[in-house]
Design a protein that fits this description.
This protein is an alpha/beta fold. It has 16 helices and 13 strands. Helix 1 packs across helix 7 and helix 7 packs across helix 8. The radius of gyration is 25 Å and the shape is globular.
């Protein structure tokens, strides 16, 4: 059970002021981030964004503890610690909805490798996991404080720990088995070196894909998946969604899908030509008078019958795929209140349901979206029976690969659907039927998973994350009122 916050709490809550408490937790969290992401700093990958995140992200996670500290000084340590789990999870939920989201460090992902507790995620999800972690740390810290002051310890002081022990002793109570048929899925996962040789050349990308899956006999798999943004060409022959069906690369993929009698799902960079006298969307880029274009980080789905569908990513990565708050700035620019227009961002098109083919009902979030339960819940409509996350590998570091595997496990246990993460450099992973198959680093890997039509309790409420904020506000107000009336008595 993670108890790493206890020594931090001991340091924080012994500070003389809220300002000092903020500094202590801020430095502690910064050191944690530096330790976890040190391999990326060594590689120098996106160093500017990493340094920015290193200094900014700890600010958000320090706010709940600082507020709790301030309340503890005004209303007592008990009150501050009771409120802290609600504050902490509310802060993490806020990360789901705004433009500086950095959900990778959300605490609920910390239990991803704890098989004994993962079964409970079908009820409580990652937010419930975070709540339990903070509650247990608060409970242990409070017990320590009472022992230090030679005070009695009551049953209520150990309640959060007992809750976790219950989940530890009875994990199978929460298990939910898949109830659908077994399907075989081929995962195409090229290396970065291989991809760099055919960068911005759709013909080479398509033929390499064809050669890689040529080892598959016809009718041997039910689905073929590829990584995020694999099909990409911007200079000569982009994938224009206006006439996607007739693009030579798509025609070739239709042939491959028909030959293998299996649909193909892969990431692709798509371009959408738009007409208008004024900028038609917040992310549109000027091409020539009366014509604009949007670029999408999206997915394509080709069936053996020749049907072609596409979707776009809904949640874009700050600073890499979008400028935070670009919609606001670009609107102000259109009204003459802001001198610059931010065109260095991908566009989005509202979500349009699952990809369907002969019993397969696939939800396909793209990379970063997989760490947003509210976004995944939008992808997972009531008919979905398979979740495929299209991703890549930013740097090739084992740290990033482990992060991808971790949230694959969280997704499976929270939503109950088999999860396949298709990535590059052997970074793909699978979580299904309480088994995590070993994925090799070969360019093509075939796995078998059982589809699941059922919804977990958590999947039915994951889209209502704002309820955490409302619940937390109600609880905090109630506790403060009781504390003011001196009715909280431990």
């Amino acid at each position: 059970m993670p108890i790493a916050y206890v020594p931090v709490f001991i340091a924080v809550y012994n500070q003389p002021s809220a300002k000092d408490a903020f500094k202590v937790f801020y430095v502690s969290f910064m050191c944690f981030l530096l330790l976890v992401h040190w391999p990326l700093f060594i590689e120098g990958f996106r160093l500017g964004a990493l340094i920015f995140g290193l200094f900014i992200v700890p600010v958000f996670w320090s706010v709940p503890v600082t507020i709790s500290f301030w309340i503890s000084k005004k209303k007592g340590l008990e009150t501050g610690l009771i409120i802290l789990p609600f504050l902490f999870v509310s802060q993490e939920v806020v990360q789901y909805y705004w433009d500086f989201s950095f959900t990778w460090v959300n605490l609920g992902l910390g239990f991803s490798d704890s098989v004994w507790l993962m079964g409970a995620y079908k009820l409580i999800g990652p937010e419930g996991g975070a709540f339990l972690i903070i509650s247990c740390n608060c409970s242990l810290f409070y017990v320590y404080s009472r022992l230090k002051d030679k005070k009695n310890i009551g049953f209520i002081h150990c309640t959060p720990v007992l809750m976790v022990l219950f989940l530890l002793l009875f994990p199978n109570f929460f298990r939910q088995d898949s109830n659908g048929k077994a399907v075989r899925v081929a995962i195409f996962q090229p290396t970065t070196a291989q991809y760099s040789e055919m960068k911005d050349n759709l013909k080479k990308q398509t033929e390499f894909f064809a050669n890689s899956i040529s080892v598959l006999p016809p009718n041997s798999v039910d689905l073929i998946v590829g990584p995020e943004s694999y099909f990409l060409e911007m200079k000569k022959s982009p994938l224009f969604v206006n006439n996607l069906n007739k693009h030579p690369a798509i025609e070739r993929l239709k042939e491959l899908s028909a030959f293998h009698n299996a649909p193909i799902l892969s990431g692709a960079i798509l371009v959408h030509l738009l007409r208008g006298n004024e900028t038609p969307t917040a992310s549109a880029k000027f091409r020539k008078p009366g014509q604009y274009y949007d670029i999408y980080n999206g997915s394509i789905f080709i069936t053996p019958h020749g049907n072609v569908e596409w979707r776009t990513k809904q949640s874009l990565l700050p600073f890499a795929e979008k400028t935070p708050f670009y919609r606001v700035f670009n609107y102000l620019n259109s009204k003459g209140f802001w001198p610059y227009r931010f065109d260095d961002t991908y566009g989005t098109v509202p979500f349009d349901g699952t990809y369907n083919f002969e019993g397969l009902r696939i939800s396909a979030p793209i990379c970063y979206e997989g760490v947003f339960p509210n976004v995944v819940s939008e992808y997972l409509d009531t008919s979905a029976n398979l979740l495929v996350v299209l991703s890549n590998d930013w740097s090739g570091s084992e740290n990033m690969l482990e992060m991808q595997r971790s949230y694959t496990n969280v997704l499976y246990n929270s939503f109950g659907k088999p999860v396949i993460l298709a990535a590059m450099n052997g970074g793909s992973s699978v979580s299904a039927n309480d088994v995590i198959p070993n994925i090799s680093e070969e360019p093509l890997e075939v796995v078998e998973v059982a589809l699941n039509n059922d919804l977990t309790v958590y999947s039915k409420i994951a889209g209502l994350q704002f309820c955490w904020l409302i619940l937390s506000l109600v609880v905090i107000i109630a506790i403060l009122i009781l504390a003011r009336l001196h009715k909280i008595n431990f």
